TrEMBL record:
Catalytic activity: an NDP-alpha-D-glucose + (2R)-3-phosphoglycerate = (2R)-2-O-(alpha-D-glucopyranosyl)-3-phospho-glycerate + a ribonucleoside 5'-diphosphate + H(+); (2R)-3-phosphoglycerate + UDP-alpha-D-glucose = (2R)-2-O-(alpha-D-glucopyranosyl)-3-phospho-glycerate + UDP + H(+)
Name this polypeptide is given: Glucosyl-3-phosphoglycerate synthase
Keyword entries, A-Z: Glycosyltransferase, Magnesium, Transferase
Family matches, as InterPro entries: Glyco_trans_2-like (IPR001173), Glycosyltransferase_2 (IPR050256), Nucleotide-diphossugar_trans (IPR029044)
PANTHER family: GLUCOSYL-3-PHOSPHOGLYCERATE SYNTHASE, UNDECAPRENYL-PHOSPHATE 4-DEOXY-4-FORMAMIDO-L-ARABINOSE TRANSFERASE-RELATED
Residue span, Glycosyltransferase 2-like domain: 38-153
EC identifiers of the protein: 2.4.1.266
Lineage, opening ranks: Bacteria, Bacillati, Actinomycetota, Actinomycetes, Mycobacteriales
Native source organism of the sequence: Gordonia defluvii
UniProt similarity note: Belongs to the glycosyltransferase 2 family.
Cofactor needs: Mg(2+); Mn(2+)
Annotated SUPFAM superfamilies: Nucleotide-diphospho-sugar transferases (SSF53448)
Taxonomic superkingdom: Bacteria
């Protein structure tokens, strides 16, 4: 069922489904008693979260057993919009009451393991624009049909709206300028993962609850490296989801994201990080430059399996 594997690179290639052809009915049959949860991490996504939920709702009750929005401390109406669209909304505090929450994407993905009991968890970003309803089926396909696969990363074209509203590939700036070059340098066996930072991926509960979760935007690269380290390349798959469009943050915010990703990546590779904050410079209208300092936090959350829960 796999597509053509990528050309051989150092280490074993990652199993790649370039033209996934499973039908939803085939996947429902393949579940065999396993349960599937879809989790949308959401921080102030009131504008887009309903559209993402609507793309998944037709699967609820069949392929999907639980559709959860893990609210990341939103100050807009993300929770209200998500609930009205039919998702179950869980706050960080509700997910794990006995552990005070910290900010960041990694925190909500970690807490989502406690917020659902599903055997397979699919993460889908809540800032997607017109997501394809087949994202979730394609992501769970390899896990449901291919024994041993425990983490499936989505990959896609990432068109970028230019001023002329033309679509041209240009998304994934941190992926192309930071994550991919650093992985080539430090973990070449992961060089052929097309979207190492991609926010659309599926994992088994057994895997996800056994790993630490890096904070903030380091979570994806941390899980990818840890899965490779602990389970080997055969546990990782990647599947072509077609086209993905999302909200694009300004460069300064991606600089902060990059600092987090670099810190996590270095630490996972046994290289000390200075823990120095990121200092950025914003040009003022009078020609001067104002500094903006952002601290980096690299403390992981421990594997959820090690947390005693107050049920
Ligand atoms: O502290 C955070 C930061 C991000 N997110 C969510 O994680 C996903 C991806 O984050 P973002 O859109 O900021 O990354 P980008 O896709 O722009 O690179 C989105 O659904 C965010 O709402 C979150 O839940 N908590
Ligand atoms: O890939 C990237 O370079 C960044 C930023 O993407 P864009 O340059 O705004 O398309 O997005 C990554 O990081 C996000 C946060 O973890 C994820 O949600 C995206 O899926 C991931 O691609």
């Amino acid at each position: 069922m796999t597509g053509a594997l990528p050309a051989a690179v150092p280490g074993r290639p990652i199993a790649t489904w370039d033209r996934p052809a499973w039908t939803v009915a085939e996947l429902v049959a393949a579940k065999g008693g396993r349960t599937v949860a879809v989790v949308l991490p959401a921080l102030n996504e009131a504008d887009t979260v309903a559209g993402v939920i609507e793309s998944i709702m037709p699967l609820v009750g069949g392929l999907v057993d639980d559709l959860v929005v893990l609210d990341s401390g939103s100050t807009d109406d993300t929770a209200g919009v998500a609930q009205a669209a039919g998702a179950r909304v869980v706050s960080r505090e509700q997910a794990l009451p006995q552990v005070p929450p910290v900010d960041g994407k990694g925190e909500v993905l970690w807490r989502s393991i406690a917020a659902t009991t599903a055997d397979i968890i699919v993460f889908i970003d809540a800032d997607l624009v017109s997501p394809d309803p087949m994202f979730v089926p394609k992501l769970v396909g390899p896990i449901l049909t291919c024994a041993g696969v425990e983490l499936v990363k989505g990959y896609y074209r990432r068109p970028w709206r230019t001023a002329a509203q033309h679509l041209e590939d240009g998304g994934g700036r941190v992926t192309e300028l930071v994550a991919r070059p650093l992985l080539a340098a430090l973990r070449p066996e992961l060089s052929h993962v097309v979207q190492p930072l991609g926010g659309e991926y599926a994992g088994t509960r057994a895997l996800l609850s056994s790993l630490p979760f890096a904070p903030g935007y380091g979570v994806e690269v941390g899980l990818l490296i840890d899965t490779h380290e602990t389970r080997g390349p055969a546990a990782i798959g990647q599947v072509n989801l077609g086209v993905r469009m999302h909200r694009h943050r300004p460069l300064t915010e991606l600089g902060v994201m990059s600092r987090q990703i670099v810190g996590t990546l270095l630490r996972r590779c046994g290289i000390d990080d200075s823990l120095a904050p990121l200092v950025q410079f914003a040009a003022a209208t009078d020609g001067s430059f104002a500094t903006q300092v952002t601290e980096v936090v690299l403390a992981d959350r421990p594997p959820m399996a090690s947390i005693r829960r107050e049920d």
